[in-house]
């Protein structure tokens, strides 16, 4: 983190401000964790803070401190637009392209607010006045901790720590991804010192699903296909299969990782039909040096991290699979 970022941020926060905090569309544990932690922290200094999510968040995050007060732009547009227009500062957390917040991005482009970006994805767009961007850091929650540490670490409490722990836990894959560092574990140690119940947090996230979600997982695994010559697995879920199992946002979280548990597999992909948006949503996970960020960015209008990225295809499921296999064959030398 550049010293100038914290110096300018501290100056910006010297007086009471109207602050809006934004996660990306379809917010995950890291997006919601960093937003909630930042709001709880800033409120201690008298700032008026609101979190506006582009749409709903997964049910398994319902327990998080302060999440019931998160506003959803998709169901309260007029009020949310008013808050954004009246903001002195807008924090954009866990995303670095305004495409990730869709229509809210157009409002941000027109606003006179100071935009502060805190994010760990690669290749950030240039839309913020203050930017803390570092793709080497495992999660935006870890970056948010760094900000809190530099401003006033004494204000860290168990509620803020629970939010930060959630994002770090989920975005590191329970500390197994390569981006997990010694610094990550030092931060977690400090969070545990606040008295958070890390076992309960883990259970809330990973052991709190409905039977329909397990049924959907069984279908996903039965649809799993192995491309032996490419050391690749892909999994499909159609809209019909989602409806049959009462799909809710967040139900497919982590499904793509099952492919990587197979010996010899270097790349795992899940393709999920979204009939409302008329796209096939895609998630990519890889082991080693196969860069799925480049794959997603070059061929599927997406991006993310070296070993974890997302994308989308406007084609049908069958045509997307055909195109995917064509792309993978084109890059087969990197998969062997």
What is the C-level CATH assignment of the largest domain?
A: Alpha Beta
Strand content: 15-25%
- Let me know the average pLDDT: 95
**Total discrete domains:** 2
Shape, per Cα inertia axes: globular
The total count of helices amounts to: 13
Question: Which structural class should the secondary elements be placed in?
Answer: alpha/beta
Report the span from N to C terminus: 37 Å
Number of strands: 12
Largest sheet: 6 strands, parallel
CATH superfamily of the largest domain, please?
inorganic pyrophosphatase (n-terminal core)
Describe this structure in words.
- A hairpin with a 4-residue loop joins strand 7 (225-227) and strand 8.
- The protein is of the alpha/beta class and 336 residues long.
- The strands form two sheets. Strands 3-2-1-4-5-6 form a six-stranded parallel beta sheet, sandwiched between helices.
- Helix 5 (140-152) packs antiparallel against helix 6 and helix 6 crosses helix 8 (198-206).
- The protein folds into two domains: 3-206, inorganic pyrophosphatase (n-terminal core) (Alpha-Beta Complex), CATH 3.90.1640.10; 211-334, Roll (Diaminopimelate Epimerase, Chain A, domain 1), CATH 3.10.310.30.
- 40% of the residues are buried.
- The chain has 13 helices and twelve strands.
- The chain has helices at 3-12, 29-43, 77-85, 103-110, 140-152, 158-171, 182-192, 198-206, 211-222, 239-244, 257-260, 292-299, 317-330; strands at 18-22, 48-53, 71-72, 89-93, 114-119, 130-133, 225-227, 232-237, 267-274, 279-286, 303-304, 308-313.
């Amino acid at each position: 983190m550049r010293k100038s970022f914290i110096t300018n941020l501290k100056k910006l926060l010297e007086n009471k401000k109207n602050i809006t905090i934004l996660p990306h569309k379809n917010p995950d544990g890291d997006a919601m964790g960093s937003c909630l932690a930042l709001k709880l922290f800033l409120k201690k200094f008298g700032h008026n803070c609101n979190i506006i999510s582009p749409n709903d968040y997964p049910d398994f995050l319902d327990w998080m401190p302060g999440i019931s007060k998160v506003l959803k732009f998709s169901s309260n547009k007029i009020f949310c637009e008013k808050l954004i227009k009246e903001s002195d500062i807008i924090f954009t957390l866990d995303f670095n392209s305004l495409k990730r917040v869709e229509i809210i991005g157009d409002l941000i482009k027109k606003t006179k607010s100071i935009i502060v970006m805190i994010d760990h994805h690669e290749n950030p767009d240039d839309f913020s006045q203050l930017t803390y961007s570092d793709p080497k850091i495992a999660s935006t929650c870890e970056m948010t901790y760094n900000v809190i540490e530099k401003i006033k670490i004494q204000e860290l409490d168990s509620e803020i720590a629970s939010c930060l722990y959630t994002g770090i836990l989920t975005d590191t894959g329970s500390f197994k991804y390569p981006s997990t560092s010694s610094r990550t574990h030092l931060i977690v140690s400090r969070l545990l010192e606040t008295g958070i119940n890390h076992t309960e947090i883990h259970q809330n996230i990973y052991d709190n699903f409905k039977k329909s979600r397990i049924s959907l997982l069984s279908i996903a695994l039965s649809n799993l296909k192995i491309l032996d010559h490419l050391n690749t697995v892909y999994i499909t879920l159609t809209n019909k299969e989602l409806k049959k199992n009462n799909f809710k946002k967040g139900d497919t979280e982590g499904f793509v990782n099952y492919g990587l548990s197979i010996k010899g597999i270097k790349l795992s992909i899940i393709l999920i039909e979204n009939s409302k948006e008329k796209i096939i949503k895609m998630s990519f996970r890889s082991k080693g040096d196969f860069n799925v960020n480049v794959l997603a960015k070059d061929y599927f209008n997406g991006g993310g991290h070296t070993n974890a990225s997302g994308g989308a295809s406007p084609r049908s499921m069958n045509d997307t699979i055909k195109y995917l296999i064509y792309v993978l064959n084109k890059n087969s030398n990197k998969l062997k």
